[in-house]
Write a structure and sequence with these properties.
With 418 residues, the chain is α+β, with helices and mostly antiparallel strands. It has 10 helices and 18 strands. The relative contact order is 0.11.
């Protein structure tokens, strides 16, 4: 019996998603747990895996907006079952007959070297004979079928011919003398290299950043702190915990320090809603991550109630989920404060933008050894820069500075946050 491929519910508030891509065409064999499709919500991308071994039959086109639990395809047990499925649910990405047609021509020896003397050329007004798979591939790569010699029966263009055309070097023609000036002038024009649709995660980033800077009066305070206490603390903790446990990172220590500082300065843990300032009881710390798919900010829930080791474990799990595209919407929503660490990229100072609708964000730079005056002596000290951006409509400069001072003390003396 065919098994349905459906849209999973990735969070309590999720209602729909966009089907971005099918990784298998109709009739192709898939193994259980192989990725068959990619969907995207406003916040996350997610890979859907095959529920079982079998033959894929997509029934919803790429780019379609689909509802939670909607059937987007099937996995059939065999070709007979797939044929029946396609009568009832026509495949959007091709049919079994088309797939088998290409496969059959290859198995019968019709797959010869493309462009061989036996291949027929198209005559004016003559219909181009090509397999469905070849037509799809040509369309995806912008190839003109009329310019591709077919190696199949009767000059039929098959998959191998498309692959050969893609592998061939581009044709060049001798440049005419009267084109030199035109080419020079054309070099002054802008040539489009790529167009990137603003959608999915990028659309959310654009919307939130615009809302942040257009609706808030943002102010940034900057300072630096000695990182030696944090370095020694991290070294001791990682030395005494079991080797099986996740090692404590600097981010884990900072998350805990921020959470405990927010306990002492609860008005920083707030948001503005119309004419009301809402101070939140829970402290949910978001940690900005960019793993190549756009900026995401998964949350450590109730960070003030958790140990540093527990926070380190959650950060590791969230990073793995982000890499594997298995983050849920619940992992990304309802934060009260955000941390953005650009130290790994060699950044010393920057001005972070508040993650709307929160009211404050902490930017961290890299740890750098610098000359520092302590007790009237110049010493070499590892320093870390701290940049606190906040909504000046609801947080004044002095309270923001006091929060930053408390946070600095906890970073320099980590025992203060325990």
């Amino acid at each position: 019996m065919a098994i349905e491929i459906t849209i999973p519910k990735l969070g309590l508030t999720m209602k729909e998603a966009r089907l971005v891509k099918w990784f298998f065409q109709a009739g192709q064999t898939v193994a259980a747990e192989q990725t068959v499709a990619l969907i995207e919500t406003d916040k996350v991308s997610f890979e859907i895996v095959a529920p079982s071994n079998g033959l894929v039959n997509p029934v919803v086109a790429e780019g379609t907006t689909v509802l939670v639990a909607q059937v987007i395809g099937y996995v059939a047990a065999d070709e007979k079952e797939l044929e029946q499925l396609q009568k009832e649910n026509p495949a959007e990405a091709g049919t079994l007959a088309e797939h088998l047609e290409d496969k059959s021509s290859e198995e019968k020896g019709e797959k010869t070297t493309p462009g061989t003397p036996g291949a027929l050329k198209l005559k004016p007004g003559e219909r181009i004979i090509s397999s469905p798979l070849a037509r799809r591939m040509a369309g995806e790569h912008g190839l003109d079928l009329a310019e591709i010699p077919g190696s199949g029966p009767g000059g039929r263009i098959v998959e191998a011919d498309i692959l050969q055309a893609l592998a061939a070097p581009p044709k060049t023609e001798p440049q005419k003398a009267d084109q030199v000036q035109e080419d020079f002038e054309s070099n002054l024009d802008l040539t489009l290299a790529d167009e990137i649709p603003i959608q999915g995660v990028r659309k959310v980033i654009a919307r939130n950043m615009h809302l942040s800077v257009s609706t808030q009066a943002q102010l940034t305070l900057q300072t630096d702190a000695s990182a030696s206490g944090m370095q020694n603390f991290r070294k001791k903790v990682n030395k005494i915990i079991d080797s099986d446990e996740v090692k404590v990172s600097y981010n884990a220590i900072i998350v805990k320090a921020v959470a405990m500082a927010l306990r002492q300065h609860p008005n920083i843990n707030a948001s503005m809603d119309g004419e009301v300032i809402k101070v939140w009881k829970q402290i949910h710390i978001g940690v900005a991550m960019d793993l190549g798919q756009g900026l995401i900010v998964p949350k450590i829930r109730s960070a003030d109630t958790k140990s540093i080791i527990s926070i380190a474990g959650e950060l590791s799990q969230l990073a793995d989920k982000a890499k594997n595209k298995t983050l849920l919407l619940d992992d990304l929503q309802n934060g009260t404060f955000t941390i953005s660490n650009l130290g790994a990229w060699g950044v010393d100072h920057f001005t972070p933008i508040v993650n709307y609708p929160e009211s404050a964000i902490l930017g961290l730079g890299r740890i750098v050894e610098k000359p520092y005056v302590k007790n009237s002596e110049v010493i070499v000290d590892p320093r870390i820069s701290l940049s606190l951006t906040f909504d000046h409509r609801i947080i004044d400069g002095a309270p923001g500075a006091m929060f930053l001072k408390t946070l600095t003390r906890m970073i320099e003396e980590p025992l203060l946050m325990l």
